[in-house]
Fold this protein.
Amino acid sequence: MFAIDHAATALLIKRRFPSAPMTWLLVSVQAMELAWVALNYLGIERTTTESTVHSVADIHLAYMPYSHSVGIALISALAAWLIIEKGFHRAVLGRAVGLGIVTHLILDLLTHGHDIVLWPGLTSPKLGLGLYESAPFVAFIVELTYGIFCWRVYRGSRGLLALIVIGNLANLSFLSPIIPGPESYLAGRPLLLVTVVFLQIVVTLVLVGVLARRTDFTYHPGRISSGESS
Ligand SMILES: [Zn+2]
């Protein structure tokens, strides 16, 4: 899933755990991707491209068993939950962060090609519904709808909605081989791709965090109110 929709997931979690600080939620939903960026820079994980790149189907997440395997993601989520809840006595935050980490895995399984293994060292099965490869326009509609759903549940501002819609539209050329876009410059430059993804992560997390603040998130026991809708 693209960065804007992972970031939007933090809105859902914030709605469920209103007292959890948004910054933690934003980092948790992209923790797996941030690990992927670091491990690619370090040469531990590997990304390749076709000689020409027309869409995301020409980009291959060739080796990422540490940042994007089912087992590591679940153990990381469990560890984060237990450490924050038992070690720092912040039960709500622990559950919210653990959930945030798991959502990334679930959303990637829905959209990615077959590139997510169960555990490092296991080469099969490789999981992922493969929407990016088999039905990229469906992936676009699914991601856009999901992003708007997150905004709706959060009851965010119009600015936040605009960010989610524009953030998804900005990915359209990546999902369509017939729409030209900046992805053609990524051919043979996997680390440039990693850098682009990293910048997308940072920009979307910051903007979602800033625009989400415009919702007055006052928590009352038994009732959650949003200033813009009440
Ligand atoms: Zn990912």
User: Anything to note?
Assistant: DSSP finds ten helices and six strands in the chain. The two ends are 32 Å apart (CA to CA). Confidence is low (pLDDT under 50) at residues 223-230. The beta strands are 46-49, 59-63, 116-117, 126-127, 217-220, 223-226.
